[in-house]
Amino acid sequence: MNWITNYVRPRMSSLFSRREVPENLWTKCPECGTMLFHRELAENLQVCTSCEHHLPITPRARFTALFDGGAFNEIRYPEPLADPLQFRDQKKYPERLKAAQKATGEREAMLVAEGEVGRTAIVAAAQDFSFMGGSMGMAVGNAIVAAAECAVRLRRPLVLFSAAGGARMQEGILSLMQMPRTTVAVEMLKEARLPYVVVLTHPTTGGVTASYAMLGDVQIAEPNALICFAGPRVIEQTIREKLPEGFQRAEYLLEHGMLDRVTHRKKLREELVSILRMLTRQSPPVAGDLPAPGQPVVNLPADAASA
User: Fold this and answer.
1) Most buried among 15, 128, 242, 270, using CB within 10 Å?
2) Candidates 3.90.226.10, 3.90.1150.10, 3.40.1160.10, 2.40.40.20; CATH matching 56-282
3) pLDDT per residue over 66-125, tens digit each?
């Protein structure tokens, strides 16, 4: 037995061999190309520390940053038929759903929750673009109806974060029917005289824009978010003309009266608190009364929250 060859050399090779680095430690900013460390990016709410570009953020991460102490109660909504049209393209629809559920850890493209934001009780709903493009199917319709019903029952404002590529083609006309259905849900809030605030994030397109995403009492957007029905490429091909710079982006829509505000993600929570307390005729927030970051918050019972 050669002791140097069989023991020493493998031992030294293992000590000095290159360690494999996990692929998800760094994210490249699509706007400026800066490599961003995952922890630093998460602490900055998925906003590039170099150019302030807003990267996608999951609904759970958004709610953790939004609600006091990161505490919220998830609201369950009815699950629709798994594959009502027996739709199949390159894959069966149930297979695509399972792949999206595995990749995101969520059962559908929308998360609904209730809790407190700056001591202000709200109901919130957020779409996940990473779940089949945030497409609006029957489950998303069920989620918005459940969110509206919960808001009416608890007498709370509803805040909705939109991010979608439009209707879900695998559900055909059933998906398109969610447009009038969610519009009726929004009307429930208006009849109950409860605020409905929409935060449009990148991208918000298609039937979502043509329904609940543009029906808010206050319309807020994140910087440079694409907000449209038909995309700019489709419009250019149709009219055969070059579109203006920044067409259908949040700042362009703000200039043309389609939005009320364009707000940076890190300032959004503070602005929502001020707007919601104003619309619900509550006193302005007092900084000393707000919970410290990371401080646990006990959710109020329904009766106390609606008082």
Assistant:
1) 128
2) 3.90.226.10
3) 999 999 999 999 999 889 999 988 899 999 999 999 999 999 999 999 999 999 999 999
